[in-house]
Specification:
single chain; 2 domains; globular; Rossmann fold; 45% helix; three-stranded parallel sheet
């Protein structure tokens, strides 16, 4: 969603941070299947299992059924599963073009774990936008206890980036 927002409203954005993600620069038949599988799982009360399995580090054993259920409950416990299903089905509307990404002029940061399956998207983002600041957290996954957001390096990277790119206060009275 961040990618679509900054592409459509670049005049409203001073800087942006992508945490374990990148702009959605394409939509494949596999993306459609993955999105529908997760939406159906959510609607049928089966939780986030498909997503948790997709985000598991590729070179490690898959999480146990118990671990999947626990993580799914933690996520669903804070969210409406039907709303999340609708979000999944709307993901294809978040696609931006490579030209839109290349046109971005604001400072951008992507923080991602080295064991995050979504790192490939961050790598593609960097290829399209060489000025992208990328911080890779060694050994971090996408989420959970080993997830990049749980690591102190994540907060430090965001802090350092925002400190280096402070907001310009142009509103009257500021």
């Amino acid at each position: 969603m961040t990618g679509k927002f900054i592409a459509r409203h670049s005049d409203r954005v001073i800087s942006a941070v992508f945490g374990g993600s990148s702009p959605r620069m394409g939509w494949t038949a596999q993306n459609e299947r993955d999105s529908e599988e997760l939406a159906s799982s959510l609607e049928q009360g089966q939780g986030m299992r498909p997503l948790i399995l997709r985000l598991a580090p590729p070179n490690e054993p898959k999480p146990s059924d118990e671990a999947i259920e626990q993580q799914s409950r933690a996520i669903i416990g804070r969210n409406d599963p039907i709303a999340l299903a609708y979000v999944q089905r709307g993901n294809k509307e978040q696609v931006v073009t490579v030209a839109q990404v290349r046109a971005l002029k604001m400072p951008l940061l992507a923080v991602v774990g080295s064991a995050d399956p979504l790192k490939v998207g961050v790598d593609a983002f960097k290829t399209v936008m060489p000025s992208l600041n990328v911080v890779v957290i060694d050994g971090a996954t996408h989420s959970g206890a080993r997830g990049a957001p749980a690591r102190p390096e994540f907060a430090a990277a965001v802090h350092d980036f925002l400190t280096a790119h402070p907001a310009a206060h142009t509103s009257p009275g500021r």
